[in-house]
Amino acid sequence: MSQTFDIVVIGAGPGGYIAAIRAAQLGYTVACIDEWKNAAGGPAPGGTCTNVGCIPSKALLQSSEYFEHARLHFAEHGIATGAVRIDVPQMIARKDAVVKQNNDGILYLFKKNKVTFFHGRGSFVRALESGYELAVSGAQPATLLARHVIVATGSRARALPGVPFDEERILSNDGALRLQAVPKRLAIIGAGVIGLEMGSVWRRLGAEVTILEGLPTFLAAADEQIAKEAKKAFDRQGLKIELGVKVGEVKATKKGVAIAYTQASGAEAMLEAERLIVSIGRVPNTEGLNAEAVGLKLDERGAIVVDELCRTNLPGVWAVGDVVRGPMLAHKAEEEGVAVAERIAGQRPHVDFNTIPWVIYTSPEIAWVGQTEQQLKAAGRAYKAGVFPFMANGRARALGDTTGLVKILADAATDEILGVHMVGPMVSELIAEAVVAMEFKASAEDIARICHAHPSLSEATKEAALAVDKRTLNF
Ligand code: FAD
Ligand code: NAI
């Protein structure tokens, strides 16, 4: 017996579950299929983001930051704690509880919005005259018929060629979030977002962390000035980052792993560690979809080919999130999910990649939106830059964290904001103002004239806007 829906969504990560909810709000009958299992084998909707990505990593970043504050900063405030120690299994258990709250929250939202959830693997069976037949395999197999299919199957960690993850010594993001003890020495390959966030967690807890990065430039996607400032802070913290290396053989040893590599200078080197995290990017999940059965077009990386509206080569089949082109970010996946549901309903939404914020939740945090200074230079665009350091911000001084700066780039002629770049305390929150400003095509002068609460970190954004016109008041 088959069940018929207007829309079937495959994958309940941020792209899929949000698309399903929005489609249900618009009056469609919607099913969402997801295969993720919790430790008891039950459903765990939320995808990579909820289970082994955004949420658990931020839980561990919070715990490890508290630990570091207690160890290094409480005394200055007159707080005496005695010896501070970390109970790693308890920290991991708390993280698991946070994940479960989010899994349960999504199941609740499905019920509330009347989205029918299927726990199992979803795959294409065949194209019908109008729509598609899909199979759900798993504990409760089912056959579904749908007029529209939204594929949101996400991505998984990319392994080094010939070095599979065992999640014991050689860890993906999954194993990196489940360690039950602090490794004495931790090696990481890839100084991207995961490498920096996970490296920060385990360094704060006492591991000696070395990150090997292939590119000669640190955080090449970020604004150079911001990347430089962040690198200085990481160096001070003792997070070792070697740039421009070429990783060679990775071997298991009695104590962990040994990584042979060539340094930027050309010298051969060996890094030994108890554990290795490989964070060199992610690959789209399309294997389980039986895409061939319907002729769904994939590119050479295995990603689903879509146009700017997330339409695939098949009528009525859409794809969103990590499984398609564009930044692999949860909020990008969500925006695409909403946009596709609304497109199906005949609305005209659009997702502007230029105003998608990037945030790296290290300490200092790093956040940006829009163009970097090097991109503007390369494009030959005339711009003005305004910079304000947190050192001159009263709230940052009271917090005891004055690292970093806010930088605003504006068009030289029109003053329109072209990019905002931040490194410092809580910039993950401050960046939202910049995103709103850019969406509304604000000028730097607009932000400079908006009243910001005092004392607040957001005053640094106002001052950076004033700096664009060379009239900072507090620096
Ligand atoms: P996913 O979240 O990967 O979800 C896809 C779902 O589909 C999964 O549940 C999968 O099991 C399921 N699935 C796959 N194939 C099938 C099938 N055939 N049948 C049924 N189900 C299937 N992004 C941010 O924006 N902020 C962050 O702070 C952040 N932190 C991160 C930290 C880490 C360690 C990692 C790894 C990623 C992080 N990301 C972050 C990226 C973010 O997790 C992804 O961009 C986001 O999860 C993509 O959402 P998605 O819905 O496209 O796919
Ligand atoms: P990444 O693309 O951010 O970084 C990978 C790094 O590995 C790059 O610097 C790259 O040059 C380097 N690299 C690649 N191959 C290498 C090799 N063979 N040897 C040495 N270095 C090599 O990818 P990452 O960190 O795996 O994260 C995947 C994605 O997940 C990110 O792109 C991001 O979209 C998302 N994410 C987002 C977070 C956030 O928003 N805060 C947090 C974590 C992940």
From TrEMBL:
Gene name per UniProt: lpd
GO MF entry, a single one: dihydrolipoyl dehydrogenase (NADH) activity
Similarity section: Belongs to the class-I pyridine nucleotide-disulfide oxidoreductase family.
Binding site for NAD(+): 190-197, 213, 281
Gene3D superfamilies: 3.30.390.30, FAD/NAD(P)-binding domain (3.50.50.60)
Ranges where the FAD/NAD(P)-binding domain occurs: 5-337
Organism: Tepidimonas alkaliphilus
Record's protein name: Dihydrolipoyl dehydrogenase
Pfam families to which the protein is assigned, alphabetical: Pyr_redox_2, Pyr_redox_dim
Keywords: Cytoplasm, FAD, Flavoprotein, NAD, Nucleotide-binding, Oxidoreductase, Redox-active center
Domain of life assignment: Bacteria
Keyword Nucleotide-binding: yes
Cofactor: FAD
Intrachain S-S bonds: 49-54
Organism classification: Bacteria, Pseudomonadati, Pseudomonadota, Betaproteobacteria, Burkholderiales
UniProt cofactor note: Binds 1 FAD per subunit.
